[in-house]
Amino acid sequence: MSISNQVNPIATIILSALSDQVAEKSIVWLAQKREKILLSEKEMDFFMAFSQASRYFKSIPFKLSVDQFHESQALCAGLRMDLWSQLQASRVYLLLQYPAADSASWKSTLQKLFETGDMLEIEALYSALPIMPFAEEMIGRAREGLRTNITSVFDAVALNNPYPSTYFDESAWNQMVVKAIFMQRPLFKIQHAEARANQELADIIIDFAHERWSAGRNVIPELWRFVGPFINSKNIEDLKKVVEEGSELEKRAALLACSMSDFPEAKSLLEKNGEIENEIESGKLNWDWIGEEAMALA
Amino acid sequence: MEMFIDPHIHVTSRTTDDYEAMRKAGIVAIIEPAFWLGQPRTEAASFKDYFSSLVGWERFRAKQFGIVHYCTIGLNSKEANNEPLAEQVMELLPLYAGKQGVVAIGEIGYDDQTAAEDKFYRLQLELAKEMDLPVMIHTPHRDKKKGTTKSMDVSEEHGLAPNMVIVDHNNEETVKEVLDRGYWAAFTIYPHTKMGSERMVDIVKQYGPERIIVDSAADWGISDPLAVPKTAALMRKMGVPEEHIRLTCYQNALTAYSQSGQMDELDWLNAEPIDQTKKMSGNSVLRGGQVPRVDGPADRVEN
């Protein structure tokens, strides 16, 4: 097998970016391991290198130039390598070197990596889902990632990752959003939230809100985003309640949800709050703003 | 606030109440040695999942309470006696021993001092040497004095430097030889039995603080996860100098295990998690200027 034929364009960007920000010995180590992984084809060599990357790369921010970032977007829209760590990037680089003969052997190797990984290793694997070989066959694994209660691992699948919106069916998508709400994750970091909104999800969220309110608890304001396009005669009462009784942030979130709806009562609720309606129209009040504010208050 | 390290505690068996109390008492970092679980394991996969939990779930659990969790990886002496299984476990060890936050091979050594225990102890000493990791030795609870001497003899036979070896579960009878031969001498404070805090105070008064380490070894049995801070308090009451308390209840463990390159004081002094989704300004192409959030009760996960 020829090594040069294996070059993956994302790996090229990672290597070039890492070369600008880590010690030369780390790059030399990476090159040695790459060769070893390609030539030996022994899983163990790959597994050891994947773990021991922590001896050469740190969990500090991985810097990408604007050009490198745009190049990566052309290859995989929504891939947020700019939010990775250097260690994470080095592990994904090694992952992209592993020769995957077919999907069955790739899945079997990845299963072992996932089953024996530490927290940071597993995060690196999930964040690389959209650029993996046979990505379309990793849906089951991604759903498994959503079952974790380790926040950072859940985040690696659900947040700042184009994988879920690209590959998940409605049930997997809804499972993810509901769990993200339950875990109080910053929902604005879920990519393509609007495009994947659906009636079923809106209904589950309304039930969830009722359950929390019965227990005398609050729900995160970002959740109304997923109800907005599905406001109807039934759930409008919930939005009215939030606008009347909620905090300033909750009120804004409920009205922002109303602005996503054509339901007449939602429109009139918005009109009654002209000042906030103006904030929405001017673009000042949007879901990113709500999410950032909610995070600052947490 | 005074800081403590408990360099031997099986937190997998402890509750979140314990974690809260430990953090409140000043414990900032812990080491969880791989050990047996009371119920013998019959499959290699049980070991795999256990090791994975030591570098995964338990690390996360500790972090939620502001405690940095490290571990040691090894095949314990009791289960070394199931030889066919032990062979399979040996194949798993290299996969975990090189991971981040694995500070030693351990706890290994002798239980009944059988031939099988001896075989796997030696194989793991070789692994530690190959990985350049310290070793945490579990000295036997029966025939302790001879077992402790033998543990050190065999370690030297395999060429390990005493400063890379922590001999645990010492008592008044074993401590002198362990220190004289240049090893780290760890003491497990057991409520009711064996080493109590009072006896520990006497040992520190007699031998001084050099290379002496206090731990709780709290597990699923009767044991006290606050043994280290409680012993420190007793030392203070009994007039042990502050510096000796700091060495035996914090610094010596750090010095011994940081020889792995996997344990760093900055891990808790500078505990702000590097959360890549909330980077400081300037580093992100698309967004910057946020104030990172400190881990706290809000991060605790509902199950």
What does this structure look like?
The complex is a heterodimer of chains A (298) and B (303). Chain A has helices spanning 9-19, 24-40, 43-52, 66-75, 86-97, 103-116, 119-127, 139-146, 151-158, 163-167, 170-182, 199-214, 236-245, 248-258, 264-271, 274-281, 287-297. Chain A is mostly helical. Chain A folds into two domains: 1-168, no CATH class; 169-298, no CATH class. In chain A, α7 (119-127) runs parallel beside α9. Chain B has one domain: Alpha-Beta Barrel (TIM Barrel), CATH 3.20.20. The relative contact order of chain B is 0.13. With 303 residues, chain B is an alpha/beta fold. An eight-stranded parallel beta sheet of chain B has the order 1-2-3-4-5-6-7-8. In chain B, α4 (83-97) packs parallel to α5 and α8 (197-207) packs across α9 (227-237). Chain B starts with a strand and ends in a 34-residue tail after the last helix. At the A-B interface, α3, α7, α9 and α17 of A face α2, α3 and α4 of B.
From the structure above, extract its key features.
heterodimer; A: 298 residues; 2 domains; B: 303 residues; alpha/beta; eight-stranded parallel sheet; 11 helices; 14% strand
Shape of chain A: elongated
Helix content of chain B: 40-55%
Strand content of chain B: 5-15%
Strand order of the main beta sheet of chain B, please? 1-2-3-4-5-6-7-8
Please tell me what the overall shape of chain B is.
globular
> What characterizes the major β-sheet of chain B?
8 strands, parallel
The CATH H-level homologous superfamily of chain B: Metal-dependent hydrolases
Structural category of chain A: mainly alpha
CATH-defined fold name of chain B? TIM Barrel
CATH architecture annotation name of chain B? Alpha-Beta Barrel
User: Strand-and-helix sequence of chain A, N→C?
Assistant: HHHHHHHHHHHHHHHHH
Sequence-ordered SSE layout with sheet pairings:
The complex is a heterodimer of chains A (298) and B (303).
Chain A: H1 9-19, H2 24-40, H3 43-52, H4 66-75, H5 86-97, H6 103-116, H7 119-127, H8 139-146, H9 151-158, H10 163-167, H11 170-182, H12 199-214, H13 236-245, H14 248-258, H15 264-271, H16 274-281, H17 287-297
Helix pairs in contact in A: 1-4, 1-5, 2-3, 3-5, 5-7, 7-9, 13-14, 14-17
Chain B: E1 4-6, H1 16-24, E2 27-33, H2 44-55, H3 57-64, E3 68-73, H4 83-97, E4 102-109, H5 115-131, E5 135-138, H6 144-157, E6 165-168, H7 175-180, E7 184-188, H8 197-207, E8 212-215, H9 227-237, H10 242-257, H11 266-269
Parallel strand pairs in B: 1-2, 2-3, 3-4, 4-5, 5-6, 6-7, 7-8
Helix pairs in contact in B: 2-4, 4-5, 8-9, 9-10
